[in-house]
Fold each of these.
Amino acid sequence: MSVLTLEGVWKNFHGHSVLRGIDLEVRPHEVVSLIGASGSGKSTLLRCVNLLETVDDGAIYLDGEEITDPRVDVDGVRKRLGIVFQAFNLFPHMTVLDNITLAPRQVHGVPKARAEEEAYGLLARFGLAQKANAYPDQLSGGQQQRVAIIRALATQPRLMLLDEVTSALDPELVLEVLGIIRELKESGMTMILTTHEMGFCRDISDTVCFLDGGVLLEKGPPEQIFTEPEHARTREFLRSVLESGRF
Amino acid sequence: MSEWVKSERQAERERFRRAHARRSASIATVSTVVFIVLVVWVVTQSPGWPRVRETFFDGEQFVKALPDVLSGFLLNIKIFLIAEPLILVVGLLVALARGIKTPAFFPIRALATLYTDVFRGVPTILVIYLIGFGLPALRLQGIPTDLATLGIIALTLSYGAYVAEVFRSGIESIHPSQVAAARSLGLSHARTMRFVVLPQATRRVVPPLLNDFVSLQKDTALVATIGPLEALRQAQIHAASTFNYTPYLVAALLFILLTIPMARFTDHLAARTRRRRGA
């Protein structure tokens, strides 16, 4: 069974449709990338899955349960999802350790000692063991984003949503974050990510989706999308990315 | 691509949401009614209630006191309307003076700091006494002797210190990068303040400022202690001649009527700010 299914999802803002009937299926351990120009609806799609936005039509299923039903417990759904934002959104008044253990302790009822032990484990695994007691503003952007990923990971989510996680980073810091995502894929994490890093996208994705004007125009394995895209719009987009040197 | 046609599933969802909203509204109504009934019941069942009703809720006294208290209340409104702009000016000037870094102007900065320290430390009612009785006693030329004017001066001095701190916290909350950007364009400190920092800072401090306004509206009653015939003073006069406290209730109601719109306006502004941030 698929982890996540989107069925004809529509989202309107001020009379303008940002998502126009999106269908998508994400299987266990699959990595799905969403690519497309700004305003194509990639981020909105992630926000809809996280229930940060209410869909205006269609349905989203997480492990077969419809999460777009208004009767559903929103917090219960979000407990099973991890999301990482472009701007990190770490809590500036908490140490790295407290950022990571907040949700496990407050939402999942994990005892303090165990939550911290697991947090130290994750920090060590991603090379941040020395930073446990630092505050976010004492870290580089790359380190902050790695902490944000660990924070999302600490609740052992069923599905990770990564929204432009490298866009706010200096080029030399991008690699360390991409490394972590690659490692997540190897550990079998199911992920949906939006990205402008086409090389990375091609490398890590099982499926690439090209969104254009709120429509999922084209979907397939990366080799197909990047070498022989069907649609002229997709070719145009890839060419403009190539010309801007982001490939 | 096809246009959006609302599906049956979405229509059902919207029906459910509407029903849910109606249910929330009726629960809120019922719980409010129950709460009010409970409070009224506890108060009216108390042993001293008949006596309290007589002294505080006398309809006849209410009607008799209303015209005088109301005319006194107009003076409160006048004091408030004159004091408020003065307070804003004093507050802003003092806040700016505290931010001056030029060494030659150190005395001004020190004076501004001293002012906020002193007038935030002294209870407002004492400031009113000291200004109201002390200032005319100097018998200097041009010092006003009108009691309401003296009250306005006292309130301005006292509240100016609070408002200065509100402005200062607003100015300090603007990120240094904004100053850096303005200064790097060649703007002087003064122009940076005027065109970049203050416009952002004032927007940020509107809710706490309005909170101080609400507080000022009722503190105009403190001016009663030096004698002008405002609402509280009028109520005192009535109460003193009849030994009935209903006139105080009249004054209290008038103050509430004035402050509630201000409080709701503050809430409205806060909600608007939240919406703008897209929460």
Amino acid sequence: MRSLIRRPVAEDAPRDPAPSKLGYRYQRLMLTPGFRATVRIGVPIILIATIAGSWYSQPENRANLTASIAQSKQSFQQRPQFMVQTMNVTGGDLAAMTEVSALLPTEFPFSSFDLDLEKIRADIEALDPIKSASVRVGQAGALEVRLNPRVPVALWRDGATLRLIDADGVQSGQILARADRLDLPLIAGDGAEENIAEALALFDAAGPLIKRVRGLVRMGERRWDMVLDRDQRILLPGDQPVSALDRVIALNQAQDMLNRDVAVVDMRNTDRPTLRMNEEAADALRRVNTTIDENGAGN
Amino acid sequence: MGDLYDSQRAMRQMRKAAMQRGVVAILDIGTSKIACLVLRFDGPEQFRTDGVGSLAGQSQFRVIGAATTRSRGVRFGEVDAMQETERAIRTAVQAAQKMANVRVDHVIACLSGARPRSYGLDGTLNVSGGTVTEQDISQVMASCDVPDYGADRDVLHAQPVNFALDHRSGLADPRGQIGNELKTDMHMLTVDATAIHNIFYCIKRCDLELAGIASSAYVSGMSSLVEDEQELGAACIDLGGGTTGLSVFMKKHMIYADSVRMGGEHVTSDISMGLQIPMPVAERIKTFYGGVMATGMDDREMIEIGGDTGDWEHDRRTVSRAELIGIMRPRVEEILEEVRERLDAAGFEHLPGQQIVLTGGGSQIPGLDGLASKILGQQVRLGRPLRVQGLPQAAIGPAFSSAVGLTLFAANPQDEWWDFEIPADNYPARSLKRAVKWFKDNW
């Protein structure tokens, strides 16, 4: 009697493990190094490039992309860490600080990414009274501006205007009247601002004459004239003007020369100092000499 | 014979190309299994300081892929059903390629059947007191007296075995020596041309190129005989599935090869017929319980042979192991007797060494060495193939001795006739050179 339990049917033909001709060829093809590299790297790259290219070729997609990039960029830049809240200007006088504040942004807060520190610094340094400046965004979102103002050392009269000149010969401002800055020496003439150091040395050397000095005039962009009150002038040579001035001062102290009626002390030729007197003084001298000649010079 | 030369030379070129690429496949087409090994050649091996290479010089290649499949469509070591064989080859090659992860284009194959026949040839050349040149060697081989081996047969191997110069024999390389008369002995092995053509065609159908073909008896002798056995003289008996190959080696050259058209499948079919069981069951019982020497214990060891008919009595049959041995032993004896006859015909008893090495899948029958020593002589041992680098554990048994031998054949083949220069007189273009030589020789 046959068993009622169902037995696994013995296979008529054993399973054929042989690959099909197509499968065999496919496997060999996939084992070919060049083809394998193409399939594994080339095809995915081409696929991705095609998809990305077709998406990007739609104008609305491009617009969306640029908008989303701009939006994410802005949201990043608007984070509180990057916001500038206050402004802090130090190191200048009131006038300079007012001028600087006009150059700085006024509406707070704003992102520090929108701030062009280099440009602000260049703008500030372009101002006359500022020698240099440092601009940075410091602690707690404060825009810190540190000013290094120019220090005027002289006044330069250029026609009707009075300019303030610092030690480098750079103009640092204008004033309306000489009386505003009586502490500063006055210079004038073309090229005066280029030889400011020499002028300052002459002012230092003036010593006892300083009360009488009204200013220095650059003559012919080559040498200095020292103008005293009572329209007296000391013509200084182009080279070594300080030693020439020293001789004049020595003469003055010895002979009290400048208190006399002398118009010009000409030191241009150092070997031969020359005096020019005023007209009346010259006439008087001529008259005295004539009288002496008439009365006989023998006594 | 020129045609054969050309095809053999073309195969040698193909082998060189494969070596250049670095990858070559080994295909052992047997009756019971088809084995495929993928070899990677790493160029010339690194010699150690003492000049001896590791692994007896076999380390220049490595097995990177191995696969075995049940052979179909092969009978007696010859292709019987071409489509089936082609599919089986494809299975093995694909699995080996997959393991190696590299594509192979060149295949070196061996065939076990095809009625091999050995011929000993000798040739003589008068070199008249000059030094022996490479041309002289080609000429002396060309002067060998080739017997009429039949139009339907092809030369598989033709190896110079020995050179003699005047009275000195046993020269391996006579080039540069001075003598009068150069003699050579050659061993030529011919097989059925149709068998080679069928294998050629099968491999071509698998999109592969045949880069060499060898006799399975020869390559299993190369892998399972140790060096002194090859030197002194030994016979290798490869007990395969459908055929039993035998090859005789002397002075590291094969001097005789033959095959007996009986093998392990005949033992299986005997069991199948004797016990009335299907072939797969018979094969299983043979490999698990088989033997050739019965002991008293074997009478008590009962083997369930089973069945699938639904008949209780039929499906619960048992057989004692002694009965199984009683079926197997006569057939194994018959095979060994046949081998003995072939060896006697070849004059094996005259060799200095009488070592007989049993290898192949059939040599795994327990007690075979005892039986074989009764029939073949006292010096019988069981041989396993050489260890080659990278061979998987599953493929180191004696059943793979011809596959392993084929790897050695691929790595460093022995010189064959067609590896030498073509004799000058076969070249019409060199007639001027010959004229010059004639003048030189005569004035």
